[in-house]
Amino acid sequence: MSEATLPTAAAAPPVEAKEETPFRRFARSFFEDRLATFGLGLFVLIVLLALAAPLIAPQNPYDLASVDVMDSRLPPGDVAGEGFTMWLGSDGVGRDLLSGILYGLRISLMVGAFSGILAAGVGMAIGLIAAYSGGRTENIIMRIVDLQLSLPSVLVALILVAGLGKGVDKIIIALVMVQWAYYARTVRGSALVERRKEYVEAAQSLGLSHARTVFRHILPNCLAPVIVIVTVQTAHAISLEATLSFLGVGLPQTEPSLGVLIANGFQYMLSGKYWISVFPGIALLLTIVSINLVGDRLRDVLNPRLEK
Amino acid sequence: MLAFVLRRLAQALFVIAAMLVIVFFGVNVVGDPIYMLISPEMDQQQIAETARALGLDRPIWEQFLIFLKNAVQGDLGRSFVHGESAIKLILHRMPATLELAFVALFMAILIGLPLGLYAGLKPESRISRLIMAISILGFSLPTFWVGLMLILTFAVSLGWLPATGRGPTVSILGIDTSLLSLKGWQHVALPALNLALLKISLVIRLARAGAREAALMDYVKFARAKGLSQSRIIGVHILKNIMIPIVTVLGLEFGSLVAFSVVTETIFAWPGMGRLLLEAITRLDRPVIVAYVMVVVVLFVTINLLVDLIYSALDPRVRLTEATS
């Protein structure tokens, strides 16, 4: 998605005579910041590790045959009964923590990505409808958006899962319902500005349908701020899912995301067996921070007002 | 002015009513709480009797009408689990949560304000960069994870502070508080710090932005020309001017502190209403969930209403633009 939209976003100021495509210019100014480059590198590494989990993990934590209760609560670096070293130790039922984290990352990232993209789609559509139709429709939509944004996301999510129940699909629904309003507000803001521009008038006088005007002409010009929100809100979704799972109302034990792993280790922490909670926590932290670093830089690069 | 107040009041009541409808139906569509409440030995007839006693056998709209009738009289139903009035249960646990939230609020100001001022007045220094890095971390770290780390560091490794519970409380004017004994403060320190962390980051940012702006103002130059000491300029002239937006934002954020305490209270086993909500969610105790949400919504709406009214009293432009639009 981003590949197609970035050029339009960066091309706002007139392009210099040099043979530099807008995308390259964007990439160059993105990588000028060392911290952001590090963040992007870290994030790519995390995604690759998560994708390759079945190939590189020393153990399949779902395969009960390979898990031995005798190995439970081993400190980091101990050797499991099967002969491989558990570099990060093992959890309460004898599963290798490193493998658990790699598989847990898959679930956490998947939930984050799905809810981020779905919320962006739903929110953008609603925001565009509000901006394009105006009048009473817009008023009602924006009132709902304001109401939702004034309530803290944790509380809304908690109430939603209380109603929806456990499970990956339900968590994603809850996260989308928590986050759509951010997109709706942002997209409406930029669509209101775009709507008055001449190219929209041109599209309308050509006799294009409303849907085509909105989605093919206005939407692409509203995408720059949305890209920033997608990154920030995906990080937020991952963090929120972990929080709900930690509280025991998010994902069930059969879908062990990082939050579930941390929750499982919590009971052992007071007796000094820190690793069961701490290592999945560090994985969660690195994921969130790396996405936020990228998001911060995108905000700077995509904001034309800050450009020299 | 009166028209403005009345309109705002009507809006507030409308929001509360809308939330009442949304929350009641939202919570009641899923799961059958009857299966959480019966023992396995019960036969079909006993199950039906329990359902009738709780009013769960009637159609949903009838349940809603009964609920509405009672809600107007301040009764939001009886807890399925505890058998007591849900609103009483919540209000009984409320002082503990409010205590935690207030301590967190003061921590946010006491820690965030000096750090933010420093970062704003010396934006280029190394320490300022460190402060800003910490505030970014404060925004992106999940609250529950920071809570775990606080327990691990201060309770498990160092053994300085207790990890769970509220400690001894002293009753004043019918309200229990743990802020009157050293032991109580030890118990409140970690959870309050955990809850305050997000707000500390927020205050740092606000104070920094405010201080950077204020430092360039004429009144600061004038104070300096008058020969006032640096500490007086910062402590009196700059501080007074940046406190207004900070206090406003923190006032609005108080409701979110109460909501976020669900996470903190669960980690630190703090006996507040947030933990009650979580227990209610896991046990499908619908009346308690509904009552909790309504209490928090009323709290939110009241805070927003007060801020609106105070603002319009201070700045007449607010209500004038409303009237014309």
Structural overview:
The complex is a heterodimer of chains A (308) and B (325). Chain A has 13 helices and 2 strands; from the N terminus they run H-H-H-H-E-E-H-H-H-H-H-H-H-H-H. Chain A has 308 residues and is mainly α. In chain A, strands 1-2 form a two-stranded antiparallel ribbon. The two termini of chain A are 27 Å apart. Chain B contains 13 helices and 2 strands. Chain B is globular, with a radius of gyration of 24 Å. Classes of the chains: A mainly alpha (308), B mainly alpha (325). The A-B interface holds A 147, 150-152, 154-155, 158-165, 235, 239, 242-243, 246-249, 262, 266, 269-270, 272, 274, 277-278, 281, 284-285, 288-289, 292, 296 and B 15, 18, 23, 26-27, 29-31, 136-137, 140-145, 148-149, 151-152, 155-156, 163, 255-256, 259-260, 262-263, 266-267, 277-278, 280-282, 289, 293, 296-297, 300, 304.
Furnish the topology, listing elements before pairings.
The complex is a heterodimer of chains A (308) and B (325).
Chain A: H1 2-10, H2 22-31, H3 34-51, H4 53-56, E1 78-79, E2 85-86, H5 97-133, H6 135-150, H7 153-164, H8 168-195, H9 198-205, H10 210-221, H11 223-247, H12 258-269, H13 275-302
Antiparallel strand pairs in A: 1-2
Helix pairs in contact in A: 1-2, 3-5, 3-13, 5-6, 5-8, 5-10, 5-11, 5-12, 5-13, 6-8, 7-8, 8-11, 9-10, 11-12, 11-13, 12-13
Chain B: H1 2-28, H2 34-37, H3 44-54, H4 60-72, H5 86-121, H6 126-140, H7 143-157, E1 170-172, E2 175-177, H8 182-214, H9 218-225, H10 230-267, H11 273-282, H12 286-314, H13 317-324
Helix pairs in contact in B: 1-12, 5-6, 5-8, 5-10, 5-12, 6-8, 7-8, 7-10, 8-10, 9-10, 10-11, 10-12, 11-12
What are the salient characteristics of this protein?
heterodimer; A: 308 residues; mainly alpha; two-stranded antiparallel ribbon; 13 helices; 1% strand; elongated; disordered N terminus; B: 325 residues; two-stranded antiparallel sheet; 76% helix; 2% strand; globular
